[in-house]
Amino acid sequence: MRLSFNEAFDRFLDQQRNEAAGMRRELLERDLTGTRKLCEMLWTVFGTLDDLVLEFELVSETGVKIYADVYHRILRIVFEAEGYVVHAEKITRERHSFEQMRVRSFVKHGIKYMPFSWDELDKKPDMCARSVYELLGRYGDTASVQWMELPVYEREIIRCAAIHPGPFSISDACQWLQLGAGPTRQVLRNLVDKSLLVPEGGGPHRFHKLRLSEEATRR
Q1: Cα(153)–Cα(188) distance, rounded to whole angstroms?
Q2: What structural domains and CATH numbers belong to the chain?
Q3: Which residue of 25, 29, 33, 170 sits 20 to 30 Å from the alpha carbon of 137, by its own alpha carbon?
Q4: pTM value?
Q5: pLDDT < 50: residue spans in the chain
Q6: Which residues in the chain belong to E strands, given as ranges?
Q7: Highest taxon of the source (predicted)?
């Protein structure tokens, strides 16, 4: 039996909270009314909440951690729900500059940015959904069929490694996947076994750094 959106979202939120730590966990414990509205609209588009990350964490161009309401890990799109009072009526000059820096940081990481207002999500959800469909129509056919055959977490590692400067660490991969060290190591081992990652230091089973293989860069 198919879950209702509210049932699916509550389960999804519990899972995201259990996997989160630090500031991301604190953000997930706050009032997420806007995020729920946003996810309900995305649910009508994708039919699932799989591949979404709530309060996605990223290091900005200034070196500080920034967070996005909802991130699609496969399509590399940030979706945000913005309330008028917080994001327009009472915004300070400093906050306005910070918000522009956030958007630049997403773009520099090759992430598409799609904001919606609470009013749009409340009063025009169909219009919001059409906007997402239009974006998918423009970019959805660019993904390699070979990559889409890989499991979700493996695709995310490949995508992030491609824009990471040089070899990456286990902690980098944990942040990308928003998972703990154990599950992340298993994903990395699978990619090493598939000759898509090459370990640097420590050997094929105990590695400290990894990089994309030539096979991965040719795909």
Answers
A1: 9
A2: 5-142 (3.40.960.10), 145-218 (1.10.10.10)
A3: 33
A4: 0.63
A5: 141-145
A6: 52-59, 65-72, 77-82, 112-117, 168-169, 197-200, 209-212
A7: Bacteria
